[in-house]
Amino acid sequence: MKKFKPNEMRVTALAHHRNGVCGDPFYVALIDWNDNVDCLPSEAKVRKMVATYRPEVDGDSGWYKIGCTTDIAVFDIDELAKGNIAMAKGNSWRGDHFVVTVHKAVMKEQDKLKKQIKGGK
Predict the structure, then answer these.
(1) Which residues 6+ apart lie within 8 Å of 118 measured at CB?
(2) Which of 119, 104, 111, 118 is nearest to 27 (CA)?
(3) Does the pTM exceed 0.85?
(4) Which residues contact 19 (CB under 8 A, 6 or more apart)?
(5) What would the pLDDT profile of 58-102 be if each residue is shown by its tens digit?
(6) Can you give the pLDDT at residue 1?
């Protein structure tokens, strides 16, 4: 695996959830994140994160818009496993630091879907 740079994050899995009959659909992303901004790449301590993200839908086309929204929630998976869902007590994260990375992954998935619909691979 490629070494992580300080503050680097990578989406390792992405899933779309339709959210039942009347809920707003959203994505769930698993993210590996080196939150140590001062370390060397060889010293990276990767934190496992999960994010929920709801991109904005273009009303005319039905596809997701290019620009990011800030409708994102991010949690440390190890803290969730401990039952920690508290704000400002070890499991609250700035979504704006993650949203661009997650949005890029969503748009990449959308591009794949568009190609499949058009008959491409």
Answers:
(1) none
(2) 104
(3) no
(4) 25, 26
(5) 888 877 877 767 789 999 999 999 999 998 778 989 898 999 999
(6) 55
CA atoms within a 13 Å half-sphere pointing along the CA-CB vector of 30: 7
Cβ atoms of 47 and 76 closer than 8 Å: yes
Residue position matching structure tokens 């969730």: 80
Residues in the chain: 121
Domain coordinates of the chain in residue numbers?
Answer: 9-117
Distances 43 to 2, 46, 79 between C-alpha atoms, Å: 13, 9, 22
Host H or E run for residue 116 = helix 99-117
Q: How would residue 113 be classed by pLDDT, with cut points 50, 70 and 90?
A: confident
